[in-house]
Design goal:
single chain; 231 residues; alpha+beta; Heat Shock Protein 90; 5-stranded mixed β-sheet; two-stranded antiparallel ribbon; binds adenosine-5'-triphosphate; binds magnesium ion
């Protein structure tokens, strides 16, 4: 996305906010004021409307986050390990709830990038790993580490969850794209990996997924270092 497209996305999302808030407010007021008089069938419709409004709010929020990405251009060097620890801490309640064993494998590298964006990138990858770990997974595990690929240190986030079908390995990085098994598993807007890809591209890096079996997948991220001169 170029600057003009980012601005366009921001303007539209921002304009949509107010009518959605109005819808949300009046749906709530309707239930509060007339709840007892509303027949059960109509309440069911209202429930569907509430779910749609919730989804609209999530999409607007994600598009707003996305549209503000290119404004954050300040880059610095920082240790990825501390950042990943923070992200894991933020998600500790769902990690514990799902009884996930989460491991930081190697010493994660020093990253040259925009801190806020890299944090959002790691949050998206780790939250996906948690979200799609699988309800019936007997031994849920997530590993975060690095691997040397063609002489370059690449970060990975690996899980043993529901995995990604081969036909979707490219598609899931496009906006609003979700796999059928993910739709059955949990709610989502399909914006997270598009945000992740946009961030990686802003850093002149690469992101891809590997998933060979039914059990789990690995997301790889390469971010060039300061000395690579390509940032
Ligand atoms: N770790 C994972 N395991 C299995 N499928 C995944 C994983 N990460 C991403 N996916 C697939 O890629 C799709 C896109 O991911 P993305 O993060 O963009 O959207 P989401 O998680 O569905 O919604 P949100 O915008 O709330 O993050 C997911 O819907 C899912 O199909
Ligand atoms: Mg996601």
């Amino acid at each position: 996305m170029n600057k003009k497209e980012f601005f366009f996305a921001y303007t539209i999302a921002h304009e949509l906010k107010s009518p959605v808030i109005t819808l949300d407010g009046f749906l709530k007021a309707m239930i509060e004021d007339y709840g007892e008089k509303i027949p059960a069938g109509a309440l069911e419709y209202i429930n569907y409307m509430n779910q749609a409004v919730k989804r609209l709010k999530a999409i607007i929020n994600d598009v707003l986050v996305l549209s503000q990405l290119s404004c954050e251009e300040k880059k610095e060097e920082f240790p990825l390990k501390d950042m990943v620890k923070d992200v894991i801490l933020k998600m500790s309640s769902s990690i514990q709830q799902k009884k996930i064993k989460i491991e930081l494998l190697d010493d994660l590298p020093i990253i040259y990038g925009n801190k806020k964006q890299i944090q959002l990138l790691m949050l998206n990858l780790i939250s996906n790993a948690v979200k799609y770990i699988g309800k019936e997974n007997p031994d849920p595990q997530i590993q975060i580490g690095t691997k040397l690929i063609n002489g370059k240190q690449v970060i990975f986030v690996r899980d043993n969850g529901i995995g990604v079908d081969k036909n979707y390995h490219k598609k899931i990085f496009d906006i609003f794209q979700r796999t059928p098994n993910a739709k059955k598993e949990a709610e989502g807007t399909g914006v997270g990996l598009f945000i992740a890809k946009t961030i990686v591209e802003e850093h002149k890096g690469k992101i891809w997924v590997e998933s060979n079996s039914q059990r789990g997948c690995t997301f790889f991220v390469y971010i060039p270092g300061k000395e690579d001169g390509s940032t």
